[in-house]
Amino acid sequence: MSFQRVSSPVVSSALLTLGMVATVGGALGFEHIGGYIPCALCLLQRDPYYYGIPVALAALASALFGGPAWLTRTLLAIAGIMMLVGAGMGVYHAGVEWGFWEGPATCATTAQGVTQNAGDLLADLNSKHGPSCTEASFRFLGLSFAGWNVIASLILAAIAFSGVRSAKA
């Protein structure tokens, strides 16, 4: 593979894929390793990543293996739009946390611990709920997870759209 073969759409697709994996992987790490239980809006904000990673991988494959430029551009544009949607979801959630507007009614309950009794597990599935969407469980430099998701999503969207612009027709 020559240096010229590694074009900007390849780099953009690779950075986009890695960035999406790292972002959603970090969220899963905070949940499963750090013990931060996500609220309903936190879980919804992961969807653009779950759907976008395969699209970004397809854009990377198209760029690497000489697919038509229109296909690479289209896939990168779709992934970029998904990241803009993710940023919008993050803005909405951060606004709920700061009290700028009301959140969904399904986010009004608080989480309790998971039972240690296997017999109570099915009952717990119906009675346990995630934490409230109105309270940030963690803040770093003044931003909650939702706020950081906005930043990550906008950076990833910029990377995707940069790849769209650089793909040759």
UniProtKB/TrEMBL annotation:
Pfam families: DsbB. Keywords: Membrane, Transmembrane, Transmembrane helix. GO terms for biological process: protein folding. One of its GO terms (cellular component) is membrane. It is found in: Membrane. It comes from the Bacteria. It is a multi-pass membrane protein. GO terms for molecular function: protein-disulfide reductase activity. This is Disulfide bond formation protein B. The lineage of its organism: Bacteria, Pseudomonadati, Pseudomonadota, Alphaproteobacteria, Hyphomicrobiales.
